[in-house]
Design goal:
The structure holds three protein chains of three kinds. Chain A is α/β, with parallel strands linked by helices. Chain A has a single domain, classed as 3-Layer(aba) Sandwich (Rossmann fold). Helix content of chain A is 31%, strand content 14%. A seven-stranded mixed beta sheet of chain A has the order 2-1-3-4-6-5-7, with helices on both faces. Chain B is built from six helices and six strands, in the order βαβββαββαααα. In chain B, helix 1 crosses helix 4, helix 3 crosses helix 4 and helix 5 runs antiparallel to helix 6. Chain C is α/β, with parallel strands linked by helices. Chain C folds into two domains: 198 residues, Rossmann fold (3-Layer(aba) Sandwich), CATH 3.40.50.970; 113 residues, Rossmann fold (3-Layer(aba) Sandwich). In chain C, helix 1 packs across helix 2 and helix 11 crosses helix 12. Classes of the chains: A alpha/beta, B alpha/beta, C alpha/beta. Chains in contact: A-C, B-C. Chains A and C meet through strand 2, helix 2 and helix 4 of A and strand 3, strand 4, helix 3, helix 4 and strand 12 of C. Strand 2 of chain A pairs parallel with strand 12 of chain C.
Chain lengths: 272, 178, 388
């Protein structure tokens, strides 16, 4: 197993994440991918927004920018254009990237700028205390949807494919080996790579919706992945399918992969 | 310090803004200080258009026209709109086609637009003909500087036509002068 | 470190250019190599000139999806080591407030040009205004220092833009260049210098393994290496310690905010620039900036012709406010007439600096029309009548 400690700022520990939160597993998978690819540690920049997942940037020993809420893709765009030699990785959450930062995310994808976005989707706002996110399924309880969410949720991967991302994948925090492989592929991809990681939030989502702690939630996502009935099949909020219907499988893996011109800034005006 | 405020007013497509820039650039070539301002926004898309040039022997304070000394009007709408802004002792030049019957006796009339049509087949060089008229009437910049500025600003393929337009404007004044 | 440089695009020639074009020439001469922006009247010419020039000298231009992203891209590029800027007008400036605060807190050098138009809201897009003077100072939340410069002519736009980049690099701070639609759009004859003095951000000399990014004397500015150059460090808008890491420690947070202010306030001599005219024997001083400073100078001359002893104090640096300079004028004149194209923004600062030592009158106007020498002269005549 890869020793990822050389990529961590151990002096910055303990971290702010809650017990049972899968974000640490996700980070480990990412660092393993970095190690496998033998990327130059000095040439990796991690750009984050605001939220639990974004705090990961503080604990990794790269050049790290903990920006403003939702704007990480815009910071990353400027940085990558100024420094094409850097591997620029955005780490963001579902509220950060899909609500307040939705515009920046889709435009970065449209440009096909050569950055990698890791979206850690835990279906809720964790940092601010369990409010509903654009990924919170219909029917789910959050502190701002005490009677159940009445809004439909985004499918982040479909959104990004529509926006023009040239590499789109979905992985589960429950499957660290798959995560590492897909993240390595994303890092290697020339152009905009988007990886949605289904993570968890036992502290708020798990507690409010009575779906158990970290272990149970990881199990749940695996079961959903296989498209079979599982512990959550009786929950009405699963992909807004009524409780009488079985939960659908969650498409995982690399969902879209194409090569198209990579954006590196406006070109010179040719002499006419 | 001598300060001269000149407004070229007309319609979109007459080259009024370019004419103002040329005049200001000619002023610089003549060793003067100059500013140039134009109308932006919805006003600049069709309808009346204008171009203001301030020329002075020293550094210019307020850069916009505040008290217009010389106004040349190239469309009826521009006449209605801008004639009231002329200084009481300012000079007015009006295109022959848009001069109202009530035009004051001190105002001068020249066939600026018709001359442009004769040269270019359109209103395209109206502004440059107007520059020829202005220069012949008021001698605001050096003649050679004006020719140089026209040649430098217009597209190469239209250079000869514009220089001809400039000369034709001056000719309009000379042939009517006593 | 200040260095005299020959700009890659030669400057020395008399030319007729707009304020917005002079801004671009100044920025490039100062070493700007990144522009991220979003179109808005009356600033768009800055982007249109940038996109034609930057790629030819190794720079990068990007049109972002909005003004929030524009300034974010500028901060990102600046951290990558490129001198960076954006330009906008009122509505876009409102959106940029978030990252003006971020740049102030993280001490990332950047230049923001705001070509002011009539407000509030979308207001008067092609009319001049000075309505964003307080927003430039206080628009973003929290206690933060800021430098705001207000040129009054096309030629001064060039010099002020160079100075803005130099101050941004010297003090690791956002610097705002504030002018109005008239200065942005009017073409004026200018003669630009052959060379300009340029300051680059200080670089660390520590071993990368021992580097703490936010270590500086109490009134100092820490060095800033570029991302990717061997120093690995954290940048956050959260209150942070000398290692750049978030903290909730009240003492650490207090020391940070205090240093952010002191690094500016302890160096006013390098920052504050005030132009004065005919003040020596003046009974009345006009306080005016930007385009109104031009009208005021002419009005002063006309009033002098009429025998009125009037002079002009014209701050080029609006923030930090030149309180010391205004107080010195107040001790010598009877009246200070503040003329600004808003309904009273800097006049409050003038009153505070004057502290009762002179009478402060206002000529305040926010109708989208400029304050002209003629109308200002009437105000001077009125002020003289009041004085007697």
């Amino acid at each position: 197993m890869t020793d990822v400690k050389s990529y961590l700022r151990e002096w910055a520990m303990p971290h702010v994440l809650c017990p049972g939160c899968a974000h640490g597993i996700v980070l480990r998978s990412f660092l393993t991918a970095v190690d496998q690819l033998q990327l130059d540690q000095d040439k990796i920049a991690m750009v984050a927004g605001i939220g639990c997942s974004s705090r990961l940037a503080g604990y990794v020993d790269f050049c790290t920018l903990h920006g403003t809420h939702g704007r990480a893709p815009a910071f990353a765009t400027g940085l990558k254009l100024a420094r094409p030699d850097l591997n620029v990785v955005v780490v963001t959450g579902d509220g950060d990237a899909l609500a307040i930062g939705g515009n920046h995310l889709i435009h970065a994808a449209r440009r096909n700028i050569d950055i990698t976005v890791l979206l850690l989707n835990n279906s809720i706002y964790g940092m601010t205390g369990g409010q509903a996110a654009p990924t919170t399924p219909e029917g789910a309880i959050a502190s701002t949807t005490p009677a159940g969410n009445t809004e439909p949720n985004f499918d982040a991967c479909k959104l990004l494919i529509g926006a023009g991302a040239s590499f789109v994948a979905r992985v589960l925090a429950a499957n660290p080996m798959d995560m590492t492989k897909v993240m390595a592929d994303g890092l290697n991809h020339p152009g905009f790579s988007f990886i949605e990681v289904i993570s968890d939030c036992p502290e708020y989502f798990g507690r409010y919706n009575k779906v158990g702690g970290g272990a149970e939630m990881l199990t749940w996502m695996s079961v959903r992945d296989e498209g079979v009935s599982g512990p959550l099949s009786d929950k009405r909020f699963v992909n807004h399918i009524p409780s009488s219907a079985p939960p659908p499988g969650l498409a995982t893996g690399v969902l879209h992969n194409e090569l198209r011109p990579v954006f590196s800034g406006v070109r010179k005006v040719g002499r006419s | 310090m001598n300060r001269n405020e000149i407004r070229i007013a007309g319609a979109g497509g007459q080259g009024v803004v370019t004419a103002g820039r040329i005049l200001a650039e000619a002023a610089i070539l003549s060793g003067s200080h100059a500013t140039h301002s134009q109308v932006y926004g919805p006003q600049s898309r069709g309808g009346a258009s204008r171009s203001d040039v301030v020329i002075a022997t020293g550094p210019i304070g307020f850069p916009l026209a505040d008290d217009i000394d010389l106004l040349i009007v190239l469309s009826a709408e521009a006449y209605t709109r801008y004639q009231p802004e002329l200084s009481p002792d300012g000079r007015l030049i009006v295109d022959g086609r848009c001069a109202p019957a009530s035009l004051a006796g001190t105002a001068r009339q020249f066939a600026v637009v018709d001359t442009s049509r004769a040269i270019s087949g359109s209103q395209l060089v109206t502004g440059v003909v107007a520059l020829g008229v202005l220069q012949a009437v008021a001698d605001v910049v050096e003649d050679e500087a004006l020719r140089t500025a026209v040649a430098a600003r217009v597209p190469a393929k239209h250079r000869d036509m514009n220089l001809k337009a400039l000369e034709a404007g001056a000719h309009l004044v000379r042939e009517t002068s006593p | 470190m200040t260095e005299t440089r020959l700009p890659e695009i030669p400057l020395a020639q008399a030319q007729l250019i707009q304020g917005n074009e002079a801004c671009v020439k100044g920025a490039l001469a100062a070493g700007c190599r990144f522009y991220g922006g979003y179109p808005i009247t009356p600033s768009s010419e800055i982007a249109e000139h940038m996109v034609r020039l930057l790629p030819n000298i190794g720079g990068v231009f990007v049109q972002m999806e909005d003004e929030i992203a524009s300034l974010a891209s500028v901060v990102g590029a600046s951290l990558g080591g490129m001198k960076s800027m954006t330009a906008t007008s009122g509505p876009g400036f409102s959106l940029m407030q978030e990252h003006i605060g971020f740049a102030a807190m993280t001490e990332v050098p950047c230049v923001i040009v705001n070509v002011m138009r009539g407000g509030p809201s979308t207001g008067l897009p092609t009319s001049p205004s000075q309505g964003d003077v307080m927003q430039a100072r206080w628009g973003t939340h929290g206690d933060h220092p800021i430098i705001v410069l207000a040129p009054s002519s096309v030629g001064e736009v060039f010099h002020v833009t160079v100075k803005a980049f130099n101050l941004a690099e010297r003090f690791r701070t956002p610097v705002i260049v504030l002018y109005d639609e008239i200065i942005g759009h009017t073409r004026e004859s200018v003669v630009l210098p052959a060379t300009v003095d340029v300051i680059d951000r200080e670089q660390p000399h520590d071993d990368p393994d021992d580097f703490w990014p936010m270590v500086a004397p109490p009134d100092g500015t820490p060095p800033l290496p570029a991302f990717g150059d061997g120093y690995r460090f954290h940048v956050t808008g959260l209150a942070h310690d000398e290692r750049g890491f978030p903290t909730n420690d009240a003492q650490v947070a207090e020391a940070l905010v205090a240093r952010l202010h002191r690094k500016i306030e302890a160096h006013l001599d390098e920052i504050v620039e005030v132009d004065t005219y005919m003040l020596d024997d003046a009974d009345i001083a006009i306080f005016a900036y930007g385009i109104v400073g031009r009208s005021a100078r002419e009005a002063v001359e006309r009033a002098r012709d009429a025998g009125i002893k009037v002079g002009l104090i014209r701050p080029v640096t609006l923030w930090p406010f030149p309180a010391r300079e205004v107080a010195a004028v107040a001790s010598r004149v009877d009246t200070i007439l503040v003329a600004e194209m808003n309904l009273g923004q800097l006049i409050g600062e003038v009153e505070r600096a004057v502290a009762g030592n002179a009478e402060v009158l206002g000529y305040l106007k926010a109708d989208g029309e400029p304050i002209t020498p003629t109308t200002l002269l009437e105000e001077i005549l009125h002020a003289e009548k009041v004085r007697q």
